[in-house]
Fold this protein.
Amino acid sequence: MLTVTRVLICSTDLLFGAGLRALIDAQPDLEVVAQVQGDHESLRATEEWLPDIVLISGLVVSLDVQREIARTAKVIMLADVDTVRGSDFFSVNARAVLSPSSSPTELIHSIHVVASGDTVLMPLAIAEKTVRLVRSTAAGVRSDPQDILTGRQLDVLVLLTQGLSNAEVAAELCVTETTVRSHVHQILNRLAVRSRAQAVATAYESGLIAI
């Protein structure tokens, strides 16, 4: 039986939003449950429709509301990366940031990847910003991952930076998905970070992964 991913679109540009809706609805395993504008509509629609993915175009939704939405759905931000701060990406716990100039294929692929697991998709420009953020706010505070993580945890962290989901990491390392979730939880605790995105940023900042 085909599993359908439910998507909520938040966009002030009705024409652009309609284009997104047509594109997504054309996919057999994706369904747009609603298209809304603004903070209150977005939050209310998330609570009413319980979508798997909330696609937010531009700055239509405030960061506070995005944080609330991210408690129940996976957020994909569609915005000019030059306007997105690394701290914004962290604070709303977004799973992906895409440029409005992304191709239809890139958008659909990102929705599928994010929906399938706990993957974080971070463009190079955002990765560079998060590195600067970590360096400026946590210099001398966070330890080098190579000093505080086990070899297996480092393996998992490296795969997370490649955008792999828990299931994909499990397959790559020949372990169970439960084991991967345990490793991810321990990685977040040992690095003193709250999200996978922050763990990925720490990997870049420490030099474990080169930009």
